[in-house]
Design goal:
6 helices, medium-chain fatty acid-CoA ligase activity, AMP-bd_C_sf, globular, GMP Synthetase, Chain A, domain 3, ligase, 4-stranded mixed beta sheet, 5-stranded antiparallel beta sheet, alpha+beta
Length: 264
């Protein structure tokens, strides 16, 4: 087993080519950077710590991996579930399929929030009584085969026209070929409501006109949750795992929309 030191995507790509590891773990941003540097993979590739789309996992397999797995976990219980790229790509329902719970992990929902328990779960929080169930902060449901499907973060809800919209339920549909990242955010409107904005980051070499056409169908099928506006921009990232920064993305979307309105 090899552990790669922190390095540039080009150096990582060379190390992967030389070592040909049987198992590789990289976060989704690291995977995107490595793919952009022309990396080729061998054996199984695992990714987690941030959302991993079916499109990203498919690109990893196209780059040589025998299997590409998305791992769902949280600090309080690691790991909790996993899904292979082919199963994720075959899922046609709403939300983000993260797979069946791993052996020993128990699952339940409470008021729509996903709760997990198992041997690897944290014992308690400092200053609090022990609790076998860890609250994930994620809205979720189980599909007909018992697999976990995420619907978005509870705190990320957008309230538009008196309707609760959970971005995570719809964002996977925006991950069409050519999209690097896609995030739905709420932007305050003048009437006190919120505007729902899709911020889409194109992959290198893919133009906005091409992506608008590819996104037309998925956007139409979102029904009452269809965004009020579509903005093409690099999605801000934050934290060690470089997850999309929703607050920063909402500010960016608001600035873009304000600038567009000023030019009319």
């Amino acid at each position: 087993r090899w552990r790669f030191p922190r390095c540039s995507p080009k150096v990582l790509a060379r190390q992967l080519r030389r070592l040909r590891p049987r198992d590789t773990y990289l976060t989704p941003p690291q995977l995107r950077d490595a793919l952009g540097a022309g990396a080729r993979f061998t054996g199984r590739v695992w990714t987690g710590s941030a959302p991993a789309s079916a499109e990203l996992l498919g690109r990893v397999r196209d780059a040589g991996a025998a299997e590409a797995w998305g791992v769902y976990a949280l600090t309080e219980l690691f790991p909790a579930a996993a899904v292979e790229s082919r199963d994720k790509a075959a899922y046609e329902g709403a939300g983000d399929l993260v797979g069946p719970a791993l052996p020993g992990v128990e699952v339940r929902t409470e008021a729509g929030e996903l709760l997990l328990s198992g041997p690897a779960a944290r014992h308690r929080y400092l200053g609090e009584a022990p609790d076998p169930w860890a609250r994930t902060g994620d809205r979720a449901h189980l599909d007909t085969t018992g697999r976990i499907v995420l619907e978005g973060r509870c705190k990320d809800m957008v309230l538009r026209r008196a309707e609760n919209i959970y971005p995570g339920l719809y964002e996977p549909a925006l991950q069409v070929p050519g999209v690097e990242l896609a995030v739905l955010v709420g932007v305050p409107a003048a009437d006190g409501d919120e505007r729902l904005v899709a911020v889409v980051q194109p992959r290198s070499g893919h133009g906005e006109a091409q992506l608008r056409s590819a996104l037309a169908g998925p956007l139409r099928r979102m029904g009452s949750a269809r965004p009020d506006a579509l903005v093409f921009a690099d999605v801000p990232l934050s934290g060690r795992s470089r997850k999309p920064d929703r607050a920063a993305t909402a500010r960016l979307a608001a600035e873009r929309l304000a600038a567009k309105a000023a030019t009319r």
